[in-house]
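Final report, closing paragraph on structural work. Over the funding period we assembled a curated collection of sequence-structure pairs, and we close with a single example.
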Amino acid sequence: MYERRFYATSLRYARTTADAEDIVIQGFTKIFSNINSFKDGNFESWMRTIIVNEALSLYRKDQKQTWNNGAPPDEHIKSNDFNVLDTLGMGDLLLIIQDLPEGSRVVFNLFAIEGYGHKEIAEMLNINEGTSKSQYSRAKELLKNKLTPLES
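Its predicted structure, as stored:
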């Protein structure tokens, strides 16, 4: 029931489809292992938090190697084949977000989509709050640049 939804969430953070699949598998493993710890509240939100934390765990592991190692994104994810802004669907927007540099993409997802504040993001990623803000600003500018040509 939740696999596709959480796979889509994972794709926003992952560099490749294989990474997204790993995030979902690890996330569901943790969900099932810790299901007894769920108390009152929204079950889907609790599960999404676990999935996002798994994505961040993979990101931090990769970050230790380098902030952005320049590895090309999975060819199944990256696409610049967009013609008209009006025809963009959720899948198209996902592709554009995934094309962002890794640091900007992660901060954008956490701030704009997940709703975390820059202070929380800084703590999660072990970066300065100013770095979070600048990465978010960079992501917005890159997204604007990618979407603006589509309007003409």
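The radius of gyration is 16 Å. The longest helix spans residues 43-65. We thank the funder for supporting this effort.
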